[in-house]
Amino acid sequence: MAQRSDEPHTPPHAALSILVVRSGGFAGISQQWRVDVQDDAEEWLELVRACPWGAVGQDAASRDRFVWRIEAHLPHTVRRASVPDAHLVGPWRVLVERVQEAEQEAEPGA
């Protein structure tokens, strides 16, 4: 359906968005990546569902290592986890690397 010219323009909403923030380390510098998914949402949902959101390990002995904050904003819920660098394996690593790749592909000149 066409939008009437007198209606305010609203951009299409992403089916889901994923934010990854890496913080900590020796210098304490944060870096973030984000992907807003509109098309291949089912592929991304599978990546999000594969992560063990309720079973994130703790790593108290590694104060100078990175911590990854991962947020998945789904249509009806938000999932959040803080994952110590030592526990960024399996589905967590796959999700983080995919978000990093997607942002890099979306950058101009990439």
What does this structure look like?
- With 110 residues, the protein is α+β, with helices and mostly antiparallel strands.
- It is built from 2 helices and 4 strands.
- The protein has helices spanning 41-50, 91-106; strands at 16-24, 31-37, 66-73, 78-84.
- It has a 4-stranded antiparallel sheet, covered by helices on one side.
- A hairpin with a 4-residue loop joins strand 3 (66-73) and strand 4 (78-84).
- Residues 1-12 have low confidence and may be disordered.
How far apart are the first and last residues' alpha carbons, in Å?
34 Å
User: What would you call the structural class?
Assistant: alpha+beta
How much of the sequence is in beta strands?
25-35%
Number of helices: 2
Count of beta strands: 4
Shape designation? globular
Uncertain regions spanning at least 5 consecutive residues: 1-12
Helix content: 10-25%
Major sheet strand order: 2-1-3-4
Evaluate the radius of gyration.
17 Å
Order of helices and strands: EEHEEH
Summarize the structure.
The protein is of the alpha+beta class and 110 residues long. Helices cover 24% and strands 28% of the residues.
How would the blueprint of this fold be written?
Elements lengths: L15 E9 L6 E7 L3 H10 L15 E8 L4 E7 L6 H16 L4
List keywords for this structure.
single chain; alpha+beta; disordered N terminus; four-stranded antiparallel β-sheet
